[in-house]
Design a protein that fits this description.
This protein has helices spanning 11-30, 34-48, 124-130, 134-150, 169-184, 203-242, 250-265, and strands at residues 8-10, 51-54, 58-64, 67-72, 76-80, 85-90, 94-97, 101-104, 110-121, 189-201. It is α+β, with helices and mostly antiparallel strands and 280 residues long. The protein has 3 domains: 8-90, no CATH class; 94-201, Tetrahydropterin Synthase, Chain A, CATH 3.30.479; 215-265, no CATH class. Helix 6 runs antiparallel to helix 7. This is Band 7 domain-containing protein.
Length: 280
């Protein structure tokens, strides 16, 4: 089913025609011509059944005894085929906020995820005839697409991978929009935007995952500290030997490096020990 234009006439011309037929009917009635008066009245009623008003950003689907005649997208007053059923479809942009869905990511960790879908109808015929209720169809397909995309990637990872739900929200949202558009083409709906609005571990594993993240952050910080401490110790020894401040043998060099490493790497402030020599 594809949308096509329905026959229509300027509504003000239609109203003028109806007024003319009504006037002729009244004139004939007062002149004693009852049959022409009744016929003219019937014609006016028939034309009146074809008058329709269309609001901006709306489309009217015209159905004549079960047959799709077309759609009218222009706003205003129109005269279309009489005795037709006319269904109004909104063409305005709308939002759909999904519920917080509980799914498992690709690693099997339970997570909570939700998204907002921005969509609009671009084909009124498909929206009316190809699906039973296009708004409900959008809701169900959106939740299905969110679940499918969420199960393809890990929530977060401590290894080098290409995509994660938390670290690549933009890419995940774009993939969600593409997949959702493929599902909603049958309903004549265009997905303007799809964005994640909620993403978190489920409550039953949130504390464990938080401890894992904290441990990973501590290890990463310690690694940076050790790398910096080694470089600082090397620079200190090289500078002392370069300026001939002291002459260090291998054992004293090892002791100095050890002291510097302890002082720099320790997470607590170090207490210096001053050697003042022997009192005796």
């Amino acid at each position: 089913m594809n949308e096509k234009n329905a026959w229509r006439l300027n509504g003000f011309i239609g109203v003028l025609l109806i007024a003319v037929f009504l006037g002729l009917s009244v004139f004939s009635f007062y002149n004693g011509s009852f049959v022409p008066a009744i016929l003219l009245l019937i014609v006016a009623v028939i034309l009146g059944s074809g008058i329709t008003v269309i609001q901006p950003n709306q489309s009217v689907v015209v159905i004549f005894f079960g047959k799709y005649l077309g759609s009218i997208r222009e706003s205003g007053l129109f005269l279309t085929v009489p005795f037709t059923l006319r269904r109004t479809v909104s063409l305005r942009v709308r939002n759909f906020n999904s519920k917080r869905l509980k799914v498992n990511d690709v690693e099997g960790n339970p997570i909570e995820i939700a998204a907002v879908i921005v969509f609009k109808v671009v084909d009124s015929a498909k929206a009316v005839f190809d699906v039973d209720n296009y708004e409900e169809f959008v809701e169900i397909q959106s939740e299905t697409a969110i679940r499918h995309v969420a199960t393809k990637y890990p929530y977060d990872t401590f290894e080098d991978v290409e995509l994660t739900l938390r670290g690549n929200a933009e890419e995940v949202s774009n993939e969600l929009q593409v997949e959702l558009q493929a599902r909603l083409n049958v309903a004549g709906v265009e997905v303007t935007e799809a964005r994640l609005t909620h993403l978190a571990y489920s409550t039953e594993i949130a504390s464990a995952m938080l401890q894992r993240q904290q441990a990973s952050a501590i290890i990463s910080a310690r690694k940076k500290i050790v790398e910096g401490a080694v470089g600082m110790a090397q620079m200190a020894i090289q500078q002392l030997e370069k300026d001939n401040v002291i002459d260090l043998d291998e054992e004293r060099r090892v002791n100095m490096v050890n002291n510097l490493m302890v002082a720099i790497v320790s997470d607590k402030s170090t207490q210096p020990v001053i050697n003042t020599g022997s009192l005796y």
